[in-house]
Amino acid sequence: MKITDHIKNANGKTLFSFELLPPIKGQGIQGIYNAIDPLMELNPPFIDVTSLREDLVYKEHASGLLEKVITRKRPGTVALCAAIMNKYKVDAVPHLICGGFTKEETEYALIDLQFLGIDNVLVLRGDARKADSGFIPTPGGHAYATDLLGQVVHMNNGMYLHDTEPSSFKTDFCIGIAGYPEKHFEAPNLKTDFKYLKQKVEMGADFIVTQMFFDNKKYIDFVKLCRENDINVPIIPGLKPITSSKQMINLPKIFHIDMPEDLSDAVAACKTEAEVKNVGIEWMINQCKELVEFGVPVLHFYTMGNAEPTKRIAQAIF
Asked: Which domain holds residue 305?
């Protein structure tokens, strides 16, 4: 079922969902099941599965020479989606990214997803490789999320790469995109970032999932700005509780977000990491209660492979 249909069928009730990372190459799927099992009693209608681009590593030979090797640390997004849908009977939402894939590989992946009965995709540019100072497109791939979105929209209209006429076989994906209440870190300002968001919705995006945030006012102001500019698709808040003191430094650095002073002061006053975790969970519970009151369609959690904090929060809300 499409995300938009799940939201419509909920009749205003806030839904619960979460995001998963595929296992590291060489690991089995049981660890993923162990992460999912504690959350299934909360009846998520859908689960997101991330996709990571390839990275560069250097392999040293006996001669002392270094060989540059391209590797993908967490492959298996499509297969994991199929496994989740088969085992848990919920909808899986794979992330589609620009980096690491040619346009042809993207087309083949979308065809496979359609064959598997997957109704939703989340279209993203993706991050830069660790070895690169900025995002470098894959040769033959897309440089921007708008271009990748365009390819999905074209396939929904029966237009495939290198074909001159529309096909009778059309995909039917419900398409999600990312939104940044505090703007994307590469955008010069929120106005510019918002312009591209509106462009994506006008191209055919069906829903928005936001970057994590810890100040609800930023999300609420973002939603109001969207509505004032005729962006009327569902806007799903992305959420992650603070579970360690290091995250107070790392999350703003990695995701370019602000931490409220009250939260940082509360964490600074903690004497143990267990206290920090409890503060982070309590903060997120209060955030979620306010968001439900505001009328968000879904509370979407970035679990980062750790289900326990998300379960504690969700149990306090649902």
From this structure: 3-317
